[in-house]
Specification:
Elements: H1 2-17, H2 24-52, H3 64-71
Length: about 70
């Protein structure tokens, strides 16, 4: 039980005195970078899926794979 108590004390000591925590501005900037990059990646994946995916229910554009599948039908 003493080992567990020592572990918790050392962990608290390290978190309080040895860890360099980011400032609020740094956290906000990092969060903005993550959100913007997530939006960009999701748009890229959406466009790739829309262009290359086979979607016969879509009346506007069925996708490149749909037309390739029609060739080998």
């Amino acid at each position: 039980m003493d080992k567990v108590k020592l572990y918790v004390q050392e962990t608290m000591n390290e978190l309080l005195y040895k860890v360099t925590w980011p400032t609020w501005e740094e956290v906000q900037n990092s969060a903005m970078v993550v959100m913007i990059s997530s939006i960009i990646f999701s748009l890229i994946i959406f466009l790739m899926d829309f262009i290359f995916g086979a979607n016969p229910e879509n009346g506007f554009f069925q996708g490149i794979l749909y037309y390739i599948y029609q060739i080998f039908r």
